[in-house]
Amino acid sequence: MSPYLLALPPQVILKRDKEPIRYNSKYDATRKRQYTWFFATVGEHPVSAPPALHPSCGLQRGDLFYHKHAHGHQLWLRQEDEATDEDHWTTVDIGYERNEDGRVLSITQKLQRPSWVGGDWAIKRVAAIERS
Fold it and tell me: 54 lies in a domain?
């Protein structure tokens, strides 16, 4: 294992946060307020995996874990393992398409937070992130 793939210290306390989903009225039929729910950490180096989170933090299927480090970022999505019927973290990349509504995973431009975007905004954001 690379020495840069560090585990987060057990004392790290995380809370479930949210970012409003970006809508484009020209392409999005859904108008109700929805959020991208995520946990986030910042560090110098990549981590090998999200930390074990206590159930009291509100962890749910579909949540994201976002780790921003000096060389970029890492993302994981909480999904169900169909074989065991248990939830686990799966590594995902910018541009990952969500099955439920076709939205695409992106990072907001100013705050650098994860967000599910749709329509032409998804194409623009993913292209901008790939160029940077």
Answer: yes
Q: What is the pLDDT of residues 21-75, one digit of tens each?
A: 544 444 455 555 567 788 888 888 999 998 887 777 778 888 899 999 998 899 9
How far apart are alpha carbons 11 and 49 in whole angstroms?
15
Q: What is the distance between the alpha carbons of residues 60 and 100, in angstroms, rounded to a whole number?
A: 15
* Cα separation, 100 vs 116, whole angstroms: 11
> What's the whole-number average pLDDT of the chain?
77
| Domains in the chain, number | 1
Q: What is the pTM of this model?
A: 0.74
Encoded tokens for 57: 């933090």
Specify if 67 maps to a domain: yes
For residue 12, being part of any structural domain is answered with no
> Could you tell me the residue range of the domain that residue 112 belongs to?
17-131
Which is nearest to 112 in space by CA: 1, 13, 19, 8? 19
